[in-house]
Amino acid sequence: MAAVTRTPLIAGNWKMNLDHLQSIAFVQKLSWTLSDARHDFGDVEVAVFPPFTDLRSVQTLVNGDDLPVRFGGQDVSAHDEGAYTGEISGAFLAALDCRYVIVGHSERRQYHGESDEDIAAKVSAAHRHGLVPVVCVGETAEDLEQHGPSAVPVAQLRVALGGARKGSEVVVAYEPVWAIGSGQAATSEQAQQVCQALRAVVAEVLGDEAAAATRILYGGSVKAANIAGFMREADIDGALVGGASLQLEEFASIARYQKHVGT
Ligand code: PGA
Description:
Blueprint: E1 9-13, H1 20-36, E2 45-49, H2 55-64, E3 70-73, H3 90-95, E4 100-103, H4 106-112, H5 116-128, E5 132-137, H6 141-147, H7 151-160, E6 171-174, H8 188-206, H9 208-213, E7 215-219, H10 224-231, E8 238-241, H11 248-255
Helix pairs in contact: 1-2, 1-11, 5-7, 7-8, 10-11
The structure holds 2-phosphoglycolic acid.
């Protein structure tokens, strides 16, 4: 596969935490902490995914103070507008300068019954509105036992990417469900093995060039103490961080993993 440099992405999925006032304080402090530490945001991109009700506040802060932190939504409707109570259109996210949107997080799959086809429709909606979907895939502990580590995430990604527009950017997040919020992260070798298989799926569906350019993140109990190990792997280009993304110093330290590679 062609050698390209992929800018690592450290993404914080806040889930249903922090209201709009707390989000402003958090993003401000995060930017200050990283800027004080001379973090090069061009070298390692940092993004946060606040609840929908925070996005306008985050946008106003980021644009007003010209902060280098990127942001996105945690979900998007497959529809553009209309009678879909409770849904949020990609058009609204784009109007708030969201760059990214998470689609297919395992909590959406589990609690909202989202299927791979639903997720493909959301990938398509994201691309229609110029958003970069962060497509989450991952196996449960049961899947792991029955099918091994890659079969389920590979099958999920193949369907989800069916909604992608060729030439539009996608980010993939491999998040083993058993590792999310459990404190038990995958080993970097396990994660690399699956991420390599996922890159092959991107190649199969979107072509070799897209596969070489696509960032594949690992997620599931990522913290400052284990990030460097993941980032040393050839096919892991960043992390989707849940719990630790709500702890300012911890998340800043994850973003600054290059300072502790080798520790
Ligand atoms: P965690 O969550 O870092 O708390 O395990 C990751 C995620 O759900 O994206």
